[in-house]
Amino acid sequence: MKNTTLKHINFPQTKTTFSFVGYCFLVAITSIPATVFACKDNIPGHYLNRYIDNKDGTISDKMTNLMWQKCTLGAVWNEQTGICETEKNESGFPIIDSQNWKNALERAQQNAFASHNDWRLPNIKELASIYDPACITPSSYYAIDLAVFDLPFNSYWSSTPSRKSTRFRDENENYVDTNTAYSLTFSYPSNRTKITPITEAQAVRLVRSQ
User: Could you tell me the pTM of the whole model?
Assistant: First the structure.
């Protein structure tokens, strides 16, 4: 289906996004001194001593008191290697278990990884808290700490709905209005959120409060 009105929002450059998602990102980072960035020049780690690898496929964030799944939903955490493993397609690219927004919310409620049954889809503020533009270098095009999390896929769902609807053409070339929610793109050119139709498939990374 061809989406004719999907709107990309760049933050913090645009006034609209800065008032919401850009503000969330600023709130998430301002409590940590800028001098402790550690992603640049391929130095492992995001913020100094911020993340704790629990060695069970989960990551604790001392800044936000959240626990994240190290792997994107659909990848399998290998306890022996500590690596998130995925199947590859014929071109060698990982196969991602992408979901529409409703299914993402439901899958989160059903998830019991690492003996926790309170996993959920992060809201846009929580998702923005692990977004780090300092990690983008000439050799890495991802705004996330790859020493902590698995290789991110393009866009991830948040649980935050948008008040806007969008119109696109269905398989019968009829215009259809649908609700939208916020997703966040981690790959270059990142630094952007998207107001995305809830029928679209996006990647999912789950979180829980500690």
Answer: 0.76
